[in-house]
Amino acid sequence: MNARFPQQNNVVTQSLAQIGSCGLFLLTLLGAIPRSLRYIRETVRQVWFLGAMSLTIIMVCGLFVGMVLMLQLYHVLSIFGGTSASGMVVALSVYRELGPVVTALLFAGRAGTSITAEIGLMRATDQIDAMEMMAVDPIAYVATPRFLAGLIAMPLLCCVFCAMAIFGGHLVGVTWLGIDNGTFWSNMTAVVDVRTDIVNGVLFKSLAFGAVVSLIAVFQGFTTPPTSEGVAYATTRTVVASSIAILALDFVLTAFLM
Amino acid sequence: MSQQRSSYAVGTGLFIVLGFAALAYLATQTSSVANVHQGDSYTVDTQFTNIGQLKERAPVKIAGVRVGQVQSIELSPGHDIADVKLSIDKRYDHIPMDSVATIFTSGLLGDQYVGINYGTSKQWVAADGTLTRTKSTEPLEEMLGKFFGAGGVTDNIGGTYTVTANFTNVGTLSPGAPVKMAGVAIGSVQSVHADPVKLNAKVVMAIDKRFNQIPDDSAAAVFTSGLIGTQYVAIQPGGSPDPLKNGDEMILTQSAMQLEDLIGKFLVNGSSSDNKNAGNGSK
Questions:
Q1: In chain B, which residue's Cα lies nearest the Cα of A149?
Q2: Which of A51, A183, B93, B131 is 20 to 30 Å from the Cα of A21, by its Cα?
Q3: Does residue A192 form part of some domain?
């Protein structure tokens, strides 16, 4: 495999090799999309397992993020008498940063690990090999549906997260802390722009994060040593690599989009 | 097996519907789209000498109420004037033809918008009509320049001639300060150096070549703009028939007023009794 570069066992070259293989794996996944359209039911099933089954954690966390953000902002802004801007700040910070990033981290923790564990176990119990024997392309049947399901589910989960965060912010701010309801909404609607904040922030960023998390999860599942120890190690590596990739990509996207 | 599959499909469908409902809620209830009811609109042309920070889609307001938005901003071909097209809601079609369109700023440093103040004409601006009366923005630099009295002098490199003048005290005069005649800037100070031989300050001024009829017995004085503004050189024309040429020196000069000298004069004159005692004491 490494014909031109000598095999070295240090962290840097190993990480670079992983990144390279992951990139090539992405091309394989994309190339298998036409073939995976035969198994569209599998994609639908995966959207249910990855997206709908994550709804509980996403909604609860969204609610608490919105509540905590409003609480912190209120106490700082009241020093300057600027509490009327708290709704606006909650909305902007959730749409632009917290919504996509926190949703992606939770998605990596819940759905990413389940993808990696499932695929790793399929390899360990020779199910992948059995598929190849039956002339079923394992990438098209197992990998690409999960990848596409992650792409579809992430933006939807992010929208739900943001809506719950706004609701939580409203609950704490207006009902508990006594900010005026009309001011809360009018300041927010005056500043939030559909193109910059919702399309660029919520939809585009969460789509990019969904692609990265799904790719890393599927890649780790397919390339681990097919042992129980290997599967456990691959699951933790999915979470670690996804988290680093999400936050680094967040910086790059913010620099380019905003 | 098929029952399980259909339940997945239904569940997935519900999940997708929920996601889109959340997106629709975010987009309509929490963003600025909620404020805009884009009905039918008509276009009105305007021209401005300076649009400042005005952007496309900036609001157009009458009496502070949003009635439309800026449709397009383009440079008028062949002139240094901006063509701004405003798209105004058809409900507001009774705008008099002599109304004034002004570029305002929301607050002190906010976004800019176009405000329309009604005129008194009985005729209304039609679709694709033009509002001819406009007021452009005031760039920050020109405003500050007017306040401090400096600025407003363009560098005319190559189009100036140099004249020197010696002052006993130039105060805070520095290179770049304007040279004015009758209050109007005609050049700038090129350099300020201390003359080691004459023990005073030599000021070299660059004056625009258009002003080549300044008599060579004119006086140069260092004045202050306003009470605490920057200092500049004022040229007070004399009566000689010969004009100043490149490299000439202005003989008559008046130095800058020093705050310490003024205070000293005031203290000395105000306490004349002390002076007498001091004089007696030296005997």
A1: B12
A2: A51
A3: yes
Tell me which residue range forms the domain holding A118: 33-257
Mutation target for B interface from A40, A43, A48: give the one with most B CBs within 10 A.
A48
B162-178 per-position pLDDT tens digit: 999 999 988 888 888 88
Residues of A with CB below 8 A from B6's CB? none
Helical segments of A97-143, H only = 99-107, 113-124, 127-133, 138
SS3 content of chain B, % helix, strand, coil (to 5): 20, 35, 40
Find all residues with CB under 8 Å of A127, minimum gap 6, and list them: none
Give the model's pLDDT for residue A177.
92
Whether A17 is covered by a domain: the verdict is no
List the one residue out of B148, B152, B142 whose CA is nearest residue B208.
B152
Residue among B14, B26, B32 minimizing CB distance to A202: B26
A52 contacts on B by Cβ (under 8 Å) = 11-12, 14-15
Of A152, A155, A189, the CB nearest to B31: A189
Q: Which residues of B touch A152 (CB under 8 A)?
A: 16
Per-residue pLDDT tens over the stretch B77-88: 888 888 999 988
ipTM: 0.82
Q: Report the domain count for chain A.
A: 1
Residue A37 neighbours by CB distance under 10 Å: 13
CA A32 and chain centroid, separation? 22
B167 contacts B222 by C-beta, under 8 angstroms: yes
Q: How far is CA A150 from CA A49, A62, A182, A253, in A?
A: 10, 19, 38, 19
Tens digit of pLDDT for each residue in B47-75?
988 888 888 778 888 998 888 888 888 99
CA-based nearest distance B17→chain A, Å? 9
Contacts of B34 in chain A (CB under 8 A): 189
Task: List the single range of A205-209, A210-214, B220-224 with lowest mean pLDDT.
Answer: B220-224
**Is position A123 within any domain?**
yes
Q: Tell which of A198, A199, A206 to mutate to test the B interface (max B CBs under 10 Å).
A: A198
Q: Which residues face B62 on adjacent strands?
A: B65, B116
